[in-house]
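From the methods appendix. Each design record in this collection lists the tokenized structure first, followed by the designed amino acid sequence. Records were kept in a plain field format so they could be parsed without special tools. The example shown here is representative of the layout used throughout.

RECORD:
FOLD TOKENS (324 positions):
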């Protein structure tokens, strides 16, 4: 099978398209023909060498799968050849999804929502599970609460807006002015151009000085240290960004704030919960660009570009027939 193999840590040129052996499902495993995958910040963090001890080289990376079951191993009971499935491969455990075939435990695999294309489904598995973990499990977002979502036009942010609205929250988000209408179309109630206005000033103005109940950090930088200034009492900050530099959180003390650090845990339950929201017509991923398996280096380079012009996710058409 063809696979995009990471041969060294570094830039997008560190990938090489190779022929590698097709995996064989073992007990409790499912072999999936991968129709589509996608690109996430985690992917380029691994590629540039952020986790060298966890990724032995050469490696097949990638963290989203939408495809069709090709074969099952002994003991598999939930799936049969021909089933359309979606899932996030177990991070740092075995090969990833930048390949024509992938093997995974049936416990992390879900039935693909029928209303989503493979490109759409592959754009949602990792970010959808991450957002569910962040907003529902950890922040415990409630009906009527206010949430500030940073980076609302991005791969994670555009899903977070939709899920927060589905939960009955009032959504504030930071985007560039050219993405105002996109953010509003997803359900954002208050859009803030972070290049022209301090988001804390905007939040306090729009809430009459009360602040928001939850801040969802997708951008890093000084967000953790500044978030308490935008929070209401007993507010929660949820971040998916690993930040190496120390942060001064003394302001959080005065707000009785809690902080939650998210690294996605894979399971079928989250996918089934997301499928229910999708079936209600309240969640749909936006595919901003599509690249082929061979062009994964170009996709990485674009995602890392500060002015990439993207909305939503970059999908990878592993099946060439899915290319637009």
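DESIGN:
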């Amino acid at each position: 099978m063809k696979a995009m193999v990471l041969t060294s840590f570094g830039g997008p040129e560190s990938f090489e398209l190779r022929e590698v052996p097709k995996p064989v499902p073992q007990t409790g495993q499912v072999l999936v023909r991968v129709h589509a995958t996608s690109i996430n910040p985690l992917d380029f963090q691994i590629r540039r060498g952020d986790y060298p001890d966890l990724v032995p080289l050469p490696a097949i990376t990638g963290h989203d799968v939408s495809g069709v079951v090709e074969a099952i191993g002994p003991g598999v009971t939930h799936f049969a050849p021909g089933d359309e499935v979606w899932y996030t491969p177990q991070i740092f455990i075995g090969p990833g999804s930048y390949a024509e075939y992938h093997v995974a435990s049936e416990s992390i695999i879900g039935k693909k929502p029928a209303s989503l294309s493979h490109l759409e489904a592959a754009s949602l598995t990792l970010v959808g599970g991450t957002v569910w973990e962040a907003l529902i499990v950890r922040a415990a977002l409630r009906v009527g609460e206010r949430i500030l979502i940073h980076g609302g036009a991005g791969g994670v942010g555009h899903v977070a807006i939709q899920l927060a609205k589905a939960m009955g929250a009032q959504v504030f988000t930071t985007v560039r002015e050219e993405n105002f209408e996109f953010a509003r179309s997803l359900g954002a109630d208050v859009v803030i151009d972070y290049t022209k206005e301090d988001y804390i000033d905007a939040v306090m103005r729009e809430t009459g000085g009360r602040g928001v109940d939850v801040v969802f950090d997708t951008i890093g930088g000084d967000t953790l240290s500044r978030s308490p200034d935008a929070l209401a009492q007993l507010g929660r900050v949820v971040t998916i960004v690993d930040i190496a530099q120390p942060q001064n959180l003394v302001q959080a003390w005065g707000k009785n704030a809690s902080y939650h650090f998210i690294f996605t845990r894979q399971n079928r339950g989250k996918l089934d919960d997301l499928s229910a929201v999708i079936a209600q017509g309240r969640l749909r991923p936006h595919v901003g660009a599509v690249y082929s398996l061979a062009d994964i280096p170009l996709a990485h380079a674009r995602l890392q570009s500060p002015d990439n012009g993207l909305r939503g996710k970059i999908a990878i058409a592993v099946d060439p027939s899915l290319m637009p």
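APPENDIX NOTE: Residues 127-261 form a domain with the Rossmann fold fold (CATH 3.40.50.720).
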